[in-house]
Amino acid sequence: SFNANGGSSCSSISAVLNASITLPISTKGGYKGTWHGYAFASSYTVTGAKTFTAVWTEKSLNECYTSGIYEIWTTNQFKSIRNVATNTSNTYKLMANINLGCSSSSPWTPISQFNGTLEGNNKKISGLIVRADGVSGSFGLFGINYGDIFDVTINGSVAIGGSTVSGVYAGIIC
C-alpha cells in the first residue's frame, strides 16, 4: 500500500511474491519525493506485504521553474526571490497561499529591488510585519518595485515610528 503523506493519492497494487512492479508517482506542489528511498516510477521486486510512505523534500526556487515561470508553493521559495529578483525580469506565480510568519521581534526584510512579474493567482501573502522605526528609504515586501504585481492580497502590518498601520499595501510598500 502507499501512504502519499500529503501528496496525490495512489492506489494499492496487488502482486505475487517475487513479481516486479512499477512504483506509482505521487505529486505535491513545490516538493520532490521518493517512496522512502525508492524513486517514483522505479521498479520494485515484491518480497512481502509492504507499505511505502512518501518522503517529501522542498524544491529550491530553480527547481520550480516551468515553462518560463517560477512557481512559488512555499514560504522558502518566495523568500528565495530575493536572490534572483534584482536586475532580472523573471515571472513568478503564486501556486499557494504564503505565510511569511513574521513577528514584531522578527520583521520582514524587504526584497531590495523587484524588476519581474509576480502573478498572484488570486492567492494571499500573509504574516507580513514591516518595521520602519528610524529607517529612511523604501521598505515593505519589496523595497523598490519596478515590476508588475497583480492578483495578490497582502496582509500584515507596518510600524512607523512606533505606530502600527494594518491593511493591504501596494506600490513601494508592497
Structure description:
This protein has 174 residues and is mainly β. The protein has one helix and 15 strands. Strands 7, 8, 9, 10, 12, 14 and 15 form a seven-stranded mixed sheet that branches. It has a four-stranded mixed sheet with strand order 1-6-3-4, with no helix packed on it. The chain has a two-stranded antiparallel sheet with strand order 2-5. Helix 1 links the parallel strand 8 and strand 9. The longest helix has 5 residues. The relative contact order is 0.13. The C terminus is likely disordered.
How would you summarize what this structure contains?
By secondary structure, the chain is mainly beta. The chain has one helix spanning 75-79, and strands spanning 2-3, 20-22, 31-35, 38-39, 43-45, 52-58, 65-66, 69-72, 91-94, 98-99, 111-114, 117-131, 142-145, 148-160, 163-167. The chain is 3% helix and 43% strand.
